[in-house]
Amino acid sequence: MSVPVYAARGPVPFLLRYVRHRLGGHAVVLTAILAAVGCAIGSQYAVKNLVDVLGWQFPPASSLWTAVGVLLALVAGDNLLWRLAGWVAARVFVELSGDLRLDLFEHLSGHAPSYFADRFPGALAGRISTAATAALTIENSLAWTTIPPAAAVVSSIAVLGLVNWHLTAALAAISVVLGLSVRHLAGRGRHLHDRYATRAAGVSGDLMDIVSNIGLVRAFGAAGRERASAPARSRRRDAALRARLSSRSASSTHACRPRRRRESRPLHLAEALSYRALTDEIRRAA
User: Fold this and answer.
1) Max CA separation in the chain (angstroms)
2) Of 131, 144, 226, 251, which cross-links 185 as Cys (Cβ 3.0–4.6 Å)?
3) pTM of the model
4) Residues 197, 137: contact at Cβ < 8 Å?
5) DSSP for 67-109, written as a single string
């Protein structure tokens, strides 16, 4: 099935098509991340267990060393699994973006020569690279900034369910409400991300076209005109970037983020949930 047919179905089926091509590697990454989160949650309770054993008046040596061994195993598993996930992802995610870039190039090269007559080749190449980079960014955002916190929250609530189900139900409801609120705030800035992606791709394409035809630009004395028009294009792109960052700051303020280092999370979540820009770039390349 051709690229436009998959792209017409939506961004999620389109990306899943390439994920299925690398299903084994993605399964290893996802399993390692979830297992690492489980080890991190379990290590906290292993520390509590060790403290309880040390609180005994005469703790048996077997119980003491068992508690120490469980804690060390969980800590070692946490670190090893994160490194395994990163090692596999460094290969699989890059290969997925390469597959996407090759398919888009193959589809683009199948067009008639008249298709390229009124289109800039640099802009077309920039859109292909932008689409592949967007897919890589989405996978990295999901793997490192979206799935781990979500899995940690679910695992913590599940463990608390063994202690008090009333508390578990309340925490689950609060988590769902906060998640939906963050998703709503992230979705409100989707048009800003789309506008920035469009203008950034345009600036990149114009620059590539000028550089690839620098001989003609110099021959006709157009270097000054191109240099004079470049700041206007850059200002439009920078204005879109400022609007995008302002939306992120507003979302962070409304979500009441207490720590500074987490203010960028709504932006990552917006990028993970906003696939529209990726679809637009794919359709322009097609």
Assistant:
1) 92
2) 251
3) 0.65
4) no
5) HHHHHHHHHHHHHHHHHHHHHHHHHHHHHHHHHHHHHHHHHHH
Contacts of 59 (CB under 8 A, 6+ apart): 53
Task: Please list, in sequence order, all residues whose beta carbon lies within 8 angstroms of the beta carbon of residue 31, skipping any fewer than 6 positions away.
Answer: none
Cβ(157)–Cβ(168) below 8 Å: yes
Token code pair at residue 12: 């999620």
CATH code, domain carrying 99:
1.20.1560.10
Radius of gyration of the chain (CA): 25
**Residue-level length of the chain:** 286
Which residue segment(s) compose the domain that 12 sits in? Answer: 3-285
Q: CA 123, CA 97: separation in Å to the nearest integer?
A: 19
Per-residue model confidence as pLDDT tens for the chain (286 residues): 567 777 777 788 888 888 998 999 999 999 999 999 999 988 888 888 888 888 888 888 888 899 899 999 999 999 999 999 999 999 999 999 888 888 888 888 888 888 777 777 777 777 888 888 889 999 999 999 989 988 988 888 888 887 788 888 888 888 889 888 988 887 777 777 777 777 776 777 677 777 777 777 676 666 666 666 666 666 665 666 666 556 554 444 444 343 333 333 333 333 333 344 444 544 554 4
32 is written with which tokens?
Answer: 């390692």
> What domain count does the chain have?
1
CA atoms of 190 and 172, how far apart (whole Å): 27
Q: What is the torsional sign of CA 129, 135, 139, 141?
A: positive
